[in-house]
Write a structure and sequence with these properties.
The protein is an alpha+beta fold. The chain contains 2 helices and 5 strands. A 5-stranded antiparallel beta sheet has the order 1-2-3-4-5. The radius of gyration is 23 Å and the shape is rod-shaped. This is Type IV pilin protein. Keywords: Membrane, Methylation, Transmembrane, Transmembrane helix.
Length: 130
């Protein structure tokens, strides 16, 4: 009589292989997810910078109040809720700051805060803007 099935050793080997693959794949997935959420913050920053320039053309002054730009809140919250965006105005210059919210703030620590100036300068490093 021949028995069929898997031995305990074979099952343990399969579980170990799955564990190793998951351990390698999860950090890559987490990095990809953070990068895709960061894109939302970048897109909104550039859109609001465009609105700021239009406001400046119409009024000869920048505004810190996002509602003056036709946005719903001040500070503005991105569509997915991953970023809050606020403006700082000093004379004829502005800095827009997108600050990561919730789990993204800890998952994407090096790019927690994205900034754009009236001159188009983007900070932090280019790694956060790729």
């Amino acid at each position: 009589m021949k028995s069929s099935g898997f031995t305990l050793i074979e099952l343990l080997i399969v579980v170990a292989i799955i564990g190793i693959l998951a351990g390698v794949a999860y950090p890559s997935y987490q990095s990809y997810a953070s990068k895709s959420k960061r894109t939302e913050g970048q897109r909104e920053l550039l859109r609001i910078a465009n609105l700021m320039e239009q406001y400046y053309l119409d009024n000869r002054v920048y505004t810190e109040n996002m509602k003056n730009l036709g946005l719903s809140k001040d500070p503005f919250e991105s569509e997915g809720g991953y970023y809050k965006i606020d403006a700082t105005v000093k004379g004829d210059t502005f800095i827009l700051t997108a600050t990561a919210q919730g789990s993204l703030a800890s998952d994407d620590a090096k790019c927690k805060e994205l900034k754009v100036t009236d001159a188009g300068q983007r900070t932090p490093s280019s790694d956060c803007w790729d």
